[in-house]
Amino acid sequence: MRYYRKPEILVPGPRSVSLDEHTVIEASAGTGKTYTLEHLYVSLILERGAKVEEILVVTFTRRAAADMKKRIRELLLKLVDPTTSQTRVRGQEEHYWEIGTQEVHRMQEALHAFDRAQISTIHTFAQNWLRRYAFETRQLFNGVLVDAEEVFERAYGELMREHFSVEPSNRVWLEAWYKACPAHTSPDEELMSTLKQVHESNAPVAPRFDEAGLQGLLRRLESGDSDSEFLNLVKTAVVQVFSPVVKDVIKRIKASQGLYTYDDMLSVLDEVVRRPSPNPLKDAMQNAYRYALIDEFQDTDPVQWRIFRTVFAGTGRHVVYLIGDPKQSIYGFRGADVQIYRKACEELLGERKPVRLSQNYRSTKEMIDAYNKIFEGYFSDPSTYPEPVSCARPRLTVTNSAGREPAITLLQSPKSALDPKQAMRESFAAEIARILGPEGLVVSDGEKTRRLKPSDIYVLARRGKDGVAIAESLRARGVPFAFYRQEGLFQTHEARDIASLLAAIADPRSRSLRRHALITPFFGVALHKVQSVDSVEGGWHQALLDQWQILARKRLYTILFDQILRTSGLIRRLVLLDSSERSLTNYEHLFELIAQEAGRREYEISDLATWMKRRVEGNMEDPDQDVNLQRLETDQSAVQIMTIHASKGLQAHVVFVYDEGSGGGHTGWKRFKREDGETGMFLAKNSAFDRDKEAYDQDENERLYYVALTRAISKLYLPDIAKKGAFYKQVVEHVLRQTPDAICFEFRPADAEEVAIPKAADFVKTLQSWEPPHTSTLATAGMSDNDVLELKKRVLQMASYSKLKANHTADTSELKVVDESEEIEEEEVQDPDAWGFIEPNHLPGGTKAGSMIHEVLEFVDFRFAASCSTAEQWSEDAKVKALVETTMQKYRFDVEAYWDDVIAMLWGTLHANVADGFDGWISPLSSLDTSRVKREVRFVFPIPEKGRASRRQTKGFAEGFVDLLFEHQGRMYFADWKTDVLEHGDYSRRKLARRVRESYPAQATIYTLAITRMLGINNAEDFERKFGGFYYFFVRGMKRADEGVYYERPTWEMVSTMDAELAGSDRHSWAELLAGGWR
């Protein structure tokens, strides 16, 4: 006889799960719900002799069902293994399974029959039974599964043609709808969208009107009443009148054409099992199962519960287990209704209470203690969290270099921040970089200790776009990140590109379809060249389309899609356009899914093009929500960014929650909680229901943030940036009621690097709105009215510094924007003779090399570089290696060939000892206080025009990016990285001065004027106090000490004189002045 300890919840007792009566298991976050469910399943086999076919398990998604099946099978295999045995503690016999000959036989039998295990989603469960009994139920016999959207569109078209606009009783309400819609809206689209939303929700619309009430609304509308709340009542009445007609027509279309949708499977099964006896399907279901385990039951809806209640709950010979957590019911927008959960508990248990899992196996003791304190008085209904959980893993800890790390850190927005939201996002990125750095966090389970990896960190955003903004801040610091299970694959631009391409392949003779495809990256034709390219008879693009159509007609889709990727030039264009891995990943993933669909449905290319078009337009549904998820574009460890809704069921050592507290507005159709506890819908604003709506939202938000706060294992960061009145502000207030300590809570200002450059945004705004004196009213004196109007209509023109430079070499009389390819060509051929001095295995010259070095220096971690004593130690760090390698590969440099030279350049640059121009030193450069440093700072600089300009000329701006802007000893400096190849490798001060005078006087002038204006410098005293000067760091020369650094600080007289001369110059003189620089 062998023994194996089972979970405490399965040990007989007053707070345990019974194997013989209905039970509700409430599993708070981290309490081991899945672990409990899989052990309950095995208990039914071992202790009640149940066969796998007799145990029904229904869960939320196919992924969850597959995972559950895998875990149960692995547990059975483990217990069958004769080496699996534990010593039974005397006096605790009931805590163990006894595994003898009979139990082994039962488990072996279960394993042999496991392919027949009834573990699936609710839709699969319903579909299997309806198919099996299609004849008996006279339902779905030879039926066709279609999308609900498609059926609704058919029905709506018929309704508009034959009912709404024709029948007098309906036409009067259609006209009422038009009158109730604002002039700037599209009434037809809004009506279709509204009827679709109400039909899909299956929730009653409020208020309801009797016939007298309906007629009263029409009379009041005829009187001209335009009150917004009244017009919403009119719309509600229209929906009340039209919705039953919509339902009837949809039902008739389905019946006449043998169509059904995923939701029909549930509604049909619900209707069939409630038929009176004899009921073959219901009898068969009751005979098939003894036990029903319904997982994630807090996300159920009325139809699903009615099916299980009808079939199993009242028979006396079945046992139903509902497993879930009402605190985590956050999918109301998908139709889930926590009120159904609560009603089901009452119906199933009577006076008995749910069995609650009370121990948290996820988080540290400090984390659990912290959020238990927050949840005291947090829920509107105190019974929501009646029993705070306790820690089951007291040895789990997280520490920093100084000792224990507080469980929850509230980052308070600094009052000096110009943009508190951006400052908070930057602070998040800084904290994440710190956590992953040498002085970062360490976790231990009492046996093993390790540093955190990027994948140990989650960022949870209330809105998807906030996650994207945080990603930009992480990218700026070189922190790897990925969007976890990012939805919307078919809504990406890659999906739209493929839809256009498939349409053109299906009909390559259609000029509009062909030209639409030409502007996708598969052909890469510029919009202004489409007509000329397409006008060539039998051109290269037509040949490609014809070739691809031949493969498509033969249904050789795998070969077709491979050829498209390989021969279209798509991959080369993505590299040239500096696209991320995300685009290529999406293209490959989409082609894979399309090939699967084509094989499954035996589609012709025209069918496939239609299918893809409808997918892109969002006109298809699929209960397997994973199909529309974007794959991760990288396999490396990365910070995971997701919405709070997507985080349910997940956990991470460190979690950052981000919510700006901005709501979605109080308009459109909203859900509310009715007096009977059910959910209804009303059209906001409606004073009769706004309060109910607020109560509904309050409950939803309480549950949402319970989920967010309980994802963290070791550490939680919360921002204090929400506006008053936002629900998230309530969460912050619950935190602020706690007492800061070194264990649970820490309150501190955000490390907002955004404010390091004093009031930079204010000066940028001033700079952007600056106008030279001669563009005042005096400048238009003598001009006709037509000339003045023409001047006002002019489009502002933006040119980069490099484009100004390129233009100056060609024609200084007029500013014009050159084609980007011309600019690159000009840049790449400069100093070709000097390239002969590049030694073997040294990085070649040219724009690509410069861009690559610039990108690494934009994202490299200064602090970490300063902490390293040798280049080898620094370059062997995983993050440094990943940054440099991936950037070199991105620009197609041989990593092995040029690695040593690139590392030498970067290390020499970061560890250069730089004189600050005031008898001080920055030693090394990477030791700069990162809170006083900004990289890649954008500015715009006005280009003046003097006197009366011709109509062809435009007022414009020069745009630039300062590579490095930093404050040192109270003064501001700017710097530019240069990868110029100089003759004989001579990077001495004399040689650099000559190089700057010849090549960079205009850049130095514009950048100095822009920075001094940004700092608000307008006199010599301010200039001396605020401006430190500028550097050109020639990184190839910085491999050797004391070389490669050029420093200059023009005098205030030089700067003010140049500013005045530029303001009074015409375009030609302006360009000449810049070319001459300060001298």
Automatic annotation (TrEMBL):
GO biological process: recombinational repair
Domain UvrD-like helicase C-terminal residue range list: 377-649
Residue sites binding ATP per the record: A27, S28, A29, G30, T31, G32, K33, T34
Protein name (record): DNA 3'-5' helicase
Domain UvrD-like helicase ATP-binding, first and last residues per copy: 6-364
Classification via HAMAP family: RecB
Example GO molecular function: ATP hydrolysis activity
Enzyme class, first EC level, given as a word: isomerase
Gene3D superfamilies: 3.90.320.10, P-loop containing nucleotide triphosphate hydrolases (3.40.50.300), PCRA, domain 4 (1.10.486.10)
SUPFAM superfamilies named among the record's database cross-references: P-loop containing nucleoside triphosphate hydrolases, Restriction endonuclease-like
Keyword line: ATP-binding, DNA damage, DNA repair, DNA-binding, Exonuclease, Helicase, Hydrolase, Isomerase, Magnesium, Metal-binding, Nuclease, Nucleotide-binding
CDD domains: DEXQc_UvrD, RecB_C-like
Coiled coil (residue ranges): none
EC number of this enzyme: 5.6.2.4
GO cellular component labels: cytosol; exodeoxyribonuclease V complex
Catalytic activity: Couples ATP hydrolysis with the unwinding of duplex DNA by translocating in the 3'-5' direction; ATP + H2O = ADP + phosphate + H(+)
